[in-house]
Amino acid sequence: MELLSKSIQVLGNRLQDVEEKLAATEKLLKSSQDTYASLLGEIQDYAIITLDLQGNIVNWNKGAEHIKGYTAKEVVGKNFRIFYTPAAQADNTPEKILAAAARNGRVQHDDYRVRKDGTLFWGSVTMTALHNNEGELTGFIKITRDLTQRKLMEDQTFQYLSKLETENRELEQFTYIASHDLQEPLRSISTLVELVATEYAGKLDENADNYLRFIRQSSNRMSDLIKALLDYSRIGKVKVKEAVDCNQIILNVVDDLRTAIHESKAQVIMENLPIVQAYPIELKLLFQNLLSNAIKFRQKDVPPVIRISCVKKGHEYEFTFADNGIGIAPRYQEKIFEIFQRLHNQLQYEGTGIGLAHCKKIVTLHGGRIWLNSIPGQGSQFYFTISA
Ligand code: ADP
Predict the structure, then answer these.
(1) 339 Cα to the center of ligand 1, angstroms
(2) Does the keyword Coiled coil apply (predicted)?
(3) Cα–Cα distances in Å, from 19 out to 24, 31, 134, 184, 375?
(4) Which ligand 1 atom minimizes the distance to the CA of 351?
(5) Could you tell me if residue 198 is inside a domain?
(6) Per-residue confidence (pLDDT) for residue 249, from 0 to 100
(7) Which of 217, 234, 251 is a domain's end point?
(8) Residue 337 CA to ligand 1 centre (angstroms)
């Protein structure tokens, strides 16, 4: 009997212990919930709102007051539809968001919202469904960020880019039409000069013969420039990307340039070239321009050695065309990518000055960059990237 009463007492003490521990844990839990609630309440940059099942506002923090302009007193109990524009309300957007959150647990929605004073802000909303221990839906928590500034900047950038694109297209159209139309009168001039030169051969004095020769040279040069301009405006007109083996393109370009390679005793070394998604005709033109420049701008009496290599860096392939040619002084290293910019006259090195402008346009078309390193008298390395 005594043993039983002792056991009951021990049990009673244990029970009291457990009850005390439980009370302490509950107190801790309550205080941590309070801290959490007041933390949420104080957050300024995010509107954090809890809603009941129908979307009526239950809790309202400082951030919500800051972003939407209502105090908790004014808004608790109202339906969260009031933050939506009339068009979104008519479309039942608030109800659709609640339904989607209930279905998927969480939904993200970015759109214009209405402040208390009727002004709009760009809100990025995350709506999360809340459940009790039994897994029943009890309401929602809605977190809104005011991203108006970011949205305005994005809109401005978008407008600026579309304007730039339109102007670029117009400019290309203009270049195409102008160069196309200029060819016709130029052709007439060339034909007439040829006619005068043959019909009046030997009948004119030496001066007139010289003048005719100059006119012929100038019209040929102008024809080359106009053709180059026309080619430039055509780059990227037909846009179909495909898998292109860069090794094969170099072999084709080397074949096309075999006379120049043979005459200059050039050595072309290629290493590790990849297969890339690219516009094949444009890519060939890019390789051809870089390779032919490396041969053309060689040092006197030094056979050109051109090394073509490629490394993958992150999401890009970085190509290098390195030569041992005459090099380019630092102050010209940007200028040479502009249309018709040349550092030599026709007698020193012939050309139109559009090759590197072509290269830049082609690389840009592929979403890449082109640049160079060069030491005059030692050689140049042209680099460009293509998205991998
Ligand atoms: P072009 O070759 O018709 O002159 P480009 O636009 O291809 O026109 O080149 C512009 C200028 O850049 C050239 O006139 C030349 O002065 C310089 N250049 C281009 N490539 C090289 C190179 N590999 N080495 C030295 N100079 C070069």
Answers:
(1) 11
(2) yes
(3) 9, 18, 25, 102, 84
(4) 3
(5) yes
(6) 94
(7) 234
(8) 9
Q: What is the pLDDT of residues 250-261, one digit of tens each?
A: 999 999 999 999
CATH code, 272: 3.30.565.10
pLDDT-derived band at 86, boundaries 50, 70, 90: very high
**Percent of all residues in the chain with a pLDDT value above 70, rounded to a whole number:** 96
Same domain, 113 and 169: no
Q: Are 253 and 347 part of one and the same domain? A: yes
Residue range(s) defining the domain that contains residue 328? 239-388
The domain boundary, picked from 215, 234, 253, lies at: 234
What is the DSSP track for 196-265? HHHHTTTTS-HHHHHHHHHHHHHHHHHHHHHHHHHHHHHTTSS---EEEEHHHHHHHHHHHTHHHHHHHT
Nearest CA to ligand 1 atom 21: 293
Ligand 1 near 355 CB (within 6 A): yes
Check pLDDT > 80 for residue 330.
yes
Q: In the prediction, which pLDDT does 3 show?
A: 72
Count structural domains, the chain: 3
The dihedral through the CA atoms of 213, 214, 220, 223 has a sign that is: negative
Domain match, 243 and 387 both:
yes
pLDDT at residue number 286: 96
Q: Which atom of ligand 1 is nearest to the CA of 356?
A: 6
Using an 8 Å Cβ cutoff, are 287 and 264 in contact? no
On average, the pLDDT of the chain sits at 89
Do 48 and 75 reside in the same domain of the chain? yes
Render pLDDT for 261-272 as a digit per residue (tens, 0 to 9): 999 999 999 998
Residue 329 lies in a domain: yes
Nearest CA to ligand 1 atom 25: 327
Q: Rounded to whole angstroms, how far apart are CA atoms 97 and 140?
A: 11
In tens, the pLDDT along 90-131 reads 999 999 999 999 999 999 999 999 999 999 999 999 999 999
Same domain, 92 and 167: no
Find the farthest-apart pair of alpha carbons in the chain and give their distance in angstroms, rounded. 151
* 25 located within any domain: no
Whether residue 166 is predicted with pLDDT greater than 80 in this model: the reply is yes
In this structure, the answer to whether residues 142 and 155 fall within a common structural domain is no
| Cβ atoms within 10 Å of 176's Cβ, excluding its own | 16
**Domain shared by 368 and 249, yes or no:** yes
Residue 20 counted as domain residue: no
